[in-house]
Amino acid sequence: MSQNIDSQYKPRFDFGKYKGIIVSVALFLLLDASVLLFNFYVSFEIADDAVGVNLAGRQRMLSQRMAKTLFVLDASRDDPAGFKTAFDELQLSKGLFDETLNGFINGGVVRGAGKEVVTLEPVTNRLGKDSLQNTLLLWQPYKSAVEQLTTDVQNNLPYESSLVAAVAMARTHNLAMLSSMNDLTVSLEQVAASKATRLRIIQTVGISLAIINFLFIMFHFVRQLRDSDKVIEKARRETTEILETVNEGLFLIDKDLILGEQHSARLVDVLGPQEFAGKSFQALLENIVSEKDAETARGFIELLFDSKVKEKLIGDLNPLSLVEVNIAQSNGGFLTKHLQFSFARAYQKDDAGTQQISHVLVTVLDITEQVKLERALNESRKHNESQLEMITGLLHTHPGLLKEFIANSFNCFNRVNNILRQPAKTTQAVRDKATSIFREIHNFKGEAASLKLEFFETAAHKMEDTLALLRDKRDLSGNDYLGLTVQLESLISYTQQVEHLTEKLGQFAVVSSNSQRPVNNKQVTGSRRSDGWEQLEDFVQNIAMRNGKMVKLVASGLSEIDLDSEYQKKLKDICIQLLRNAVVHGIETPRDRELSEKPIVGRIDLRLAKVSETEMELTVMDDGQGLDYDAIRTKALNSGKWPEDEIESWTNKHLLGLIFHEGFSTAAEINKDAGRGVGMEAVMNHVLAQRGKISVSSRSGRHCRFVITLPIVHANSSEEIAA
Question: How many CB atoms lie within 10 A of CB 262?
Fold first, then answer.
């Protein structure tokens, strides 16, 4: 769902609303411009007046210098060099004085004090004009006398009389000319001072008007701000009420994926206390979701900002529709939550009135309780299914065998408990616990598989996963077994439920429900045998089906020897391990058997025969591919337990012994039936515990045969054999 940001939140120019401020600002600018222009004009005039004052002062200096020069000429008649210097200075002073005087009277270009060319305007004030007129009357005869002297000197004529006349003029006119030049200077200074005074008055008036105008602008501006603040505050309060009321975490992100200034109060509860404003969306996600999900979310949001992409078409691509996050807590721990992020475009009109994508609105929902409820429902459904599966399995299992399995299970659990409780002072002793428990659970899994009790088989397989991790852990300690203890308690509880349910069903009802069932594609009428050997057929077929193989089990002699019940159970465990090994590792798939020109159905022969009054022989033989010594050697090399050169020197007989080694398996992957390296080790332990013998023969591509010789243990004689 797209979101529109109302146009009222976008600033618009309203001339009527701001008319007073605009007019005041315009007047302020006009006033400032007028005062500034007048300042420029007057400043230029004052600068010109300053030049006039300087030149008027120079006129006083020139009149003095001309008089001095004439006196020097009169005294230097007998000194040609001194006479010439004084004469040149007289000529220069006379020219500058005359030129400047004409400039003051008529205006024009004259040489300035620094020999630069300046322009003089005619003097117009009364005092200045009078002083210039007096100076001109004095200067004209003075000038004529100096010019006559100049003519005589330049033409090499007698100049004594003209020099005397010029000196006389200097004595009579110099002081009067100096006084007139002083009056000129004073008059020019008065003009400049009046202009400066006028400038100060105009500046004062301008500044006063500017201050008044500024105060007027401030008055309007403050009033407008006050009115705007009221509107903004009202909108802010409404927005705050909305953001504090909604139950979702809400915030906006821009095109740079930066969070906006506003967010709902619920966001703090959902994502934890932190500073959201101005934070990048990537930084917000980096501590709660994986880097891959954060990068995918960034790409998704970029698509939302692309106006060419339809929002509805990419809605299903949201990578954060359901995420599990870990929120850091103040106590150093983490709180696991399930969050749902949803994204929607937010639009805003541009100057042309076109809707443009300005932000993306992000909504965050805490759906932890909903997820917990769904999981609880799923767990309840799974529990009900497992209960139904358990009942179905019990209905297809002989009550005597089931009762025996339950008793054996509790015995197994007690042995595991004893192993767990046994104190271990060394690291190796702690590790040996895992190995011992592994054997017990593996035998338990085999018995469950033989009775097609899949729940028990699966639970045992999960415990094997835990034990495998413990067995391979370097710094193993007693505390690491806590998780296994929880699994064991759960399995014990389930076994107790089975025991209770079995008692309710009653064994006769179970027997009657199984009065007719197919065995090896034949109907068997009546109750099944209760010695448990017939369960091996179901066990083999179940494993074969899981591994995509076809197998026929041919068993003989299993019920012909009277054995102690506990001893018979151990013999069954051996058979289960050897049959599993034959199906998984020996018998080929139908396709491979067909390529090898064999019947697609593999055959396993299981035979128990009495060889003497005290010994019996168990034979398990399959017509499969035989032992793969190359695979055994490669597995040994990859394990890193033995030096490579030592392994290369081993014979097939030596390699054969590895299949009974703890944790050794040639299976490509671990599953319910293979990969743990426990089954054949369990067989060897059983045989050694009963002081028996085992021999193995194999032919590549043809068969593999295990022959185990064991003592015959009749009822009430097991203690004697064990001793």
Answer: 15
Q: Nearest to residue 418, comparing CAs of 488, 494, 496? A: 488
Place of tokens 């008059």: 187
Contacts of 695 (CB under 8 A, 6+ apart): 706, 707, 708
Give the integer Cα–Cα distance in Å for 554 and 623: 12
How do 3-4 and 551-556 pair as beta strands? unpaired
First and final C-alpha spacing in the chain: 81
What's the rounded Cα separation, in Å, for the pair 511 and 41? 127
Amino acid found at 355: Q
User: 266: Cβ–Cβ under 8 A, 6 or more apart, which residues?
Assistant: 246, 247, 248, 249, 250
3-state secondary structure 4-42: ECCHHHCCCCCCCCCHHHHHHHHHHHHHHHHHHHHHHHH
60, 81, 178, 708 from 64: Cα distances, Å: 6, 22, 8, 150
Q: Which of 649, 592, 654, 605 is nearest to 629 (CA)?
A: 654
Read off the pLDDT of residues 212-225 as tens digits, 9 standing for 90 and up: 877 877 777 777 77
Tokens coding 68: 């001095």
Lowest mean pLDDT across 87-91, 328-332, 352-356, 516-520: 516-520
Q: Which structure tokens are listed for 349?
A: 């009109």
Quickly count: other Cβ atoms within 10 Å of residue 40's Cβ: 10
- Would you tell me the crossing angle of helices 482-505 and 368-395 to the nearest 10 degrees? 50
List strand residue ranges (DSSP E) for 229-333, in order: 249-253, 259-263, 323-328
Report how far apart, in Å, the C-alpha atoms of 66 and of each of 341, 446, 449 are.
102, 141, 141
DSSP string, 380-395: HHHHHHHHHHHHHHHH
Cα–Cα distances in angstroms (integers) from residue 601 to residues 142, 534, 622, in the given order = 153, 20, 11
pTM here is 0.41
Percentage of residues in the chain with pLDDT exceeding 70?
Answer: 85
Residue 238's identity, in one-letter code, is E
* Run of H or E including 702: none
Q: Specify the amino acid at residue 235.
A: A
Q: Of 348, 346, 364, which Cα lies nearest the Cα of 356?
A: 348
The residue assigned the tokens 């007027």 is 216
Q: Do 704 and 626 meet the contact criterion of CB atoms below 8 Å apart?
A: yes
Between residues 183 and 534, the one the model is more confident about = 183
As a whole number of angstroms, the distance between CA 593 and CA 612 comes to 38
pLDDT at position 374, please? Answer: 82
Sign of CA dihedral 573, 578, 582, 584: positive
Whether 667 contacts 584, CB under 8 Å = yes
Yes or no: say if 249 and 263 are a contact pair by the CB < 8 Å rule.
Answer: yes
Residue 663's nearest CA partner among 516, 470, 519, 525 is 470
Q: What is the DSSP letter of 588?
A: P
Is residue 591 pLDDT above 80, yes or no?
A: yes
Q: Looking at per-residue confidence, does 140 or 466 come out higher?
A: 140
Cα 196 off chain centre by: 70
Q: Could you read off the pLDDT of 143-189 as tens digits, one per residue? A: 998 989 899 888 988 888 888 888 989 899 888 888 888 888 888 88
Sequence-distant (6+) residues with CB within 8 A of 235 are 9
Whether residue 48 has pLDDT greater than 90: no
CA dist., res. 424 & res. 318, Å (int): 53
Beta bridge partners of 574: none
With contact defined as beta carbons under 8 Å apart, do 475 and 483 qualify? no
